[in-house]
Amino acid sequence: MSSPTKVPANMTSGVVKNTDKASKTASFASSANSGKVIQLDTAGKIPGNLLNPVADQFRLDSDQAITASEVDITSWERVDSTGQGTTSSQMSQSSGVFSFPSTGLYLVMFHSSFSRVSANVDVIELRLRGSTDDFSTNALLVEAGGAVTGSTPTELAPLVTLFDVTDISNDKVKITVQADATGTTLNGSSATNKTYITFLRITGT
Question: How much is the pLDDT for 130?
């Protein structure tokens, strides 16, 4: 497939009126730019804020005990092993709460690994919670879980959802974990992905 033809702004002089050209720093998804011609930036590229891809990933960097109370998963680090990488536009994280760098529709994928430590546990629940008011309130978006025993000492559980970010100050997500008894742990590592979360910006909204 051939690449799209890029036409610099100076080639449109006399062909496209200035009032029909979008700013070189056009804001993303602005109705003011409807029907206008995109101008390339000084590097000859489409302004990054109009594309703004986001691909980011964090992992639990140490084991976290699972208790009978629902708690946030908080000990995250951005992946940094050889060969791993992220886009320059990145998520931010504070005390287990993830904030988004720009509006848009995001695919959020969480993978957990949990193990028996000292006892069989019948119910372990992982929850992906989202908020549109900076976690003054929240909604349960996805829930999954399992159980661990001496014969099945380790289990995996995924959580996947689409999350529509319309306000980067207030639209946020977090992961929580809870069991019906103590005796298990979420598996973490600072060297490899065991329990981890991935964010992909699919499109603007």
Answer: 98
